[in-house]
Amino acid sequence: MRRVPEDRFLTDQIFYVTLATLDRDRVFSNDLPVHVVSNSLQFFRTQREIELHGFVIMPDHVHVILRVVPPLKLPDWARRFKSYTAHALGGRRIWQKGYWSETIVSESFLREKLLYIHENPVRAGLSGDALKYAWSSAAEYQEQTFRQVDPYWESGRFSYPD
Predict the structure, then answer these.
(1) DSSP state letter for 2
(2) How many of the other CB atoms lie within 10 Å of CB of 144?
(3) Domain spanning 11-104: which superfamily?
C-alpha cells in the first residue's frame, strides 16, 4: 500500500484524486452508475463543497481534479462522495478503501493531469477520441462551455495539442 500523502489534510488546495472500485470491478460500465457518479459530482459542486476542474469516469475508477471548499477537507469529501454514491446505487460497497491524491502544485502540472485524465478513455480503448467520450470534461475544455466544471483559468483557455 502506498504511503498516504500528508498534504491531503491541507485546505484550499487543488487536488488530483483517483477513486477506484472494489476489486477493480467494472461498476461504471453501464449508464445508471455513471449517471449517479456524474450527478453526485454536480451535487457537491452546486452545494459549493467543491470546485470541479476536471473529471473522467472510467469503468473501474474515477479521476477528478478539484478544490475542496474550506472548511471541508479532502478526506471528508471523499468519504461523503463514496457514501453518497454507494447509497444511491443500493447501499452495497462499491469503492476500495481510501483513494490516491496529489496536490496540484503548478499550472503546468494541472494541464498535465487534465490531459492525462481526458486521454484515459482513449488509452483504455473506450473511445477513439477523448473529446467524444461522454463521461469526461474534455469536450467542455475544448468547446469552453463549462457547464459541469469550473475552469481554473479566468480566460478558460485550454486546448489539446494537435
Answers:
(1) P
(2) 13
(3) Transposase IS200-like (3.30.70.1290)
